[in-house]
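RECORD TYPE: protein structure
NAME: Catechol 1,2-dioxygenase
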Amino acid sequence: MRTTQSNPAQKPVSSLSLIDNEWSVTEVVAQAMAQTENPRLRTVMAALVKHLHEFLREVRPTDEEFELGLEFIAALGHATHATNNEVVLAADVLGLSTLVTTMNNGTKDGRTPGALLGPFYRAHAPHYACGECVVQDDAPGLPLFVSGTVRATDGSPIPGAVVEVWQASPVGLYDNQDPQQPDRNLRGLFHTNADGGYHFRTVRPAGYPVPTDGPVGKLLAAQNRHPYRPAHIHFIVAAPGYRTLVTQVFADDSDILETDVTFGVHRQLVGAFRLVEAGRSPWGDLPAPFYTMAFDFALEPGEQTFPKPPID
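PREDICTED:
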């Protein structure tokens, strides 16, 4: 007797298998994803689809507006390459990066708050001994002497902690943006001493505009927003047994602290940039004028990790 096998793709049509109206679209998509095995992926995607669909029903885009939105997303990818990450930049100027950073890296138990990694972090920073200078060229601007202590949230110093820094130049450009700068200029990796202390010399950074030659720049222009970030220095502070801190310290005399294009200025991350107009530098015996900035960091117990660089 000959038997026939049923096609596994031919399943009974359920009440949710076909689209009846705009509300049923969300239900059908949710049903399609319900068998996702990874529980976290299932939760994240269900919430993402729910809120994206609600967003569309709220703003009710035309077909042309929807296509324009898709073109913007595609343009973010096209503008991302080895030296520029437009996707990260978009997340920054929409406040997404700062929101996630603040949710995951607040001031719990006295730890130093986190701040954006930013689109210009690069791996393989030069290694320096404490007190050395990260400036590799004849950069204009006044020297800046940075110092501080790395401690645990219980107040105990952390010797041997990694303190990695990077910053823009006095004309507001990172080394990968400026062909006149040496490779990995104004970047450095230090280790704290037995008392948890660190210190290094740099040059005072300038505030700068984020890249505006891509889709993010067009968005900012359409919103009548300036593209500037206040002067700051990026830090990664890490030690075994402690949760790695990715943060920034901002110049307190900047006039755009409250309008940072990436919304990244946390009140506790404003550092005192002090102009010294007489005397000698705290190390290196340089004559005034120069700036000093002292800033301490507090790490909480946890896992030591390092972020993935968004560019080469």
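COMMENT: The chain has two domains: 14-60, 86-299.
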